Amino acid sequence: MQYRKFGRLGWNVSDIGFGAWAIGGGWGPTDDAQSLSALDRALDLGCNFIDTAQGYGDGRSERLIGQTLRGKKRDKVYVATKIPPAAGPWPPSPYCRIDQRYSESYLTDRVERSLRDLGTDCIDLLQLHTWTRAWNKNPDALNILRKFQKHGKIRGIGISTPEDDQDALVQLIREGWLDSVQVIYNIFEQQPQGELFPAAKEHAVGVIVRCAFDESVLAGKLTEVSTFPEGDFRRRYFAGDRLERAVRRAAAVRETIGDREPDMPTAALKFALKPAAVSTVIPGIRNVAQAEANFAVSDLPAMSDSLEAELRSHAWRRYFWYAGK
Ligand SMILES: NC(=O)c1ccc[n+]([C@@H]2O[C@H](COP(=O)([O-])OP(=O)(O)OC[C@H]3O[C@@H](n4cnc5c(N)ncnc54)[C@H](OP(=O)(O)O)[C@@H]3O)[C@@H](O)[C@H]2O)c1
Questions:
Q1: Residues of the chain with pLDDT under 70
Q2: Mutate to test the pocket of ligand 1, among 290, 292, 295 (most ligand atoms within 8 A of CB)
Q3: Structural contact between residues 6 and 12, judged by C-beta atoms closer than 8 angstroms
Q4: Per the domain annotation, does 324 fall within a domain?
Q5: Which of 36, 66, 116, 189 has CA 20 to 30 A from 259's CA?
Q6: Pairing label, strands 123-128, 78-83
Q7: Is there an atom of ligand 1 within 6 Å of 80 CB?
Q8: Residue of 47, 208, 210, 226 to test ligand 1 pocket, by largest number of atoms within 8 Å of CB
């Protein structure tokens, strides 16, 4: 396993981490015994960074991680969790008030809840689960998190980007508010290369890359007729003609890769690992086989510059009207 420096916190984190959403729920049926085996195997393989959230199965993912780490040397594994904003639109609208979505009493209760579910007395990295740039001029919630940090409840402070406006965090990075950011970066979504990665590198902010497989289509195993079980969020993510369009695009990616990488999941992870600003890539993992396949990529040679350059042409700005289809 290879390790990289996690921004100004200076941690040495495995360059592949454990994305722990699916083990909490939201991706169809989950089996705790299988999830615990996956977590154990990840630690055996040298993974020392796990990303979770209160929202992943209403604490289930955090509790499984707490159970896995019980009795183990905690300072050897970094756990990042997230607090969602109080009820309201997701991502927050520009009209949402920060003191209503992330009030001090709410955040205080929520930190206690994660401490309990993770079974620890200090959270390594506390992330706000989403944000809106409307709060940049007055990011009060971050001052509240700094208080928690001073009181030894949390070690680092991060935010996970709002999907529709990832660059919303650039200003906060530049102003020194954040120890880390969590971003979507993959062969389709390359926007962070513009501003966010350079800003994070310049200000020594740790970068956690999520959704390297674009919720599994870049793992190359979906087809136009794939179906998802009840309770799997991909039913919504790939609703309507989105599955067909995404599968078509993934096939074009596969064409470009040719025989230069062993398979699509390897290529997708290597692409996400390529920017120097990236500290760790956290594929979603829910069984031992996925843990073994994904952590093995850490020790493979990096993707060639020429293949990375060619894959840039597959960037897909889905949310922009005339580039969308
Ligand atoms: N807003 C946020 O902050 C936010 C949002 C999304 C995700 N995240 C974090 O980022 C992590 C990663 O994102 P994600 O889980 O949403 O999506 P992802 O990593 O793009 O895709 C995960 C899915 O890819 C498939 N997969 C994993 N390894 C594979 C392999 N080696 N070969 C083939 N398929 C493989 C699995 O699907 P199957 O289970 O069907 O096999 C898995 O559930 C999450 O677990 C979570 O920690 C954060």
A1: 319-325
A2: 290
A3: yes
A4: no
A5: 189
A6: parallel
A7: no
A8: 210
Q: Is residue 243 part of a domain?
A: yes
- Please tell me the total count of domains within the chain: 1
Residue corresponding to tokens 């949402």: 96
Residue nearest ligand 1's atom 24 by CA: 216
CA atoms within 13 Å, Cβ hemisphere of 214:
29
Does some domain include residue 148?
yes
Q: Which atom of ligand 1 is nearest to the CA of 289?
A: 31
Paired tokens of 244: 């067909």
- Spacing of C-alpha 133 from chain mean position: 19
**325 in a structural domain:** no
Q: Which pLDDT score, from 0 to 100, does residue 271 have?
A: 99
Residue 212 in contact with ligand 1 by CB distance below 6 A: yes
Atom of ligand 1 nearest to the CA of 212: 20
Range of the domain at 258: 3-319
What pLDDT digit, counting tens, does each position of 310-320 carry? 999 999 988 66
Paired sense of beta strands 3-6 and 11-14, if any: antiparallel
pTM (predicted TM-score) = 0.98
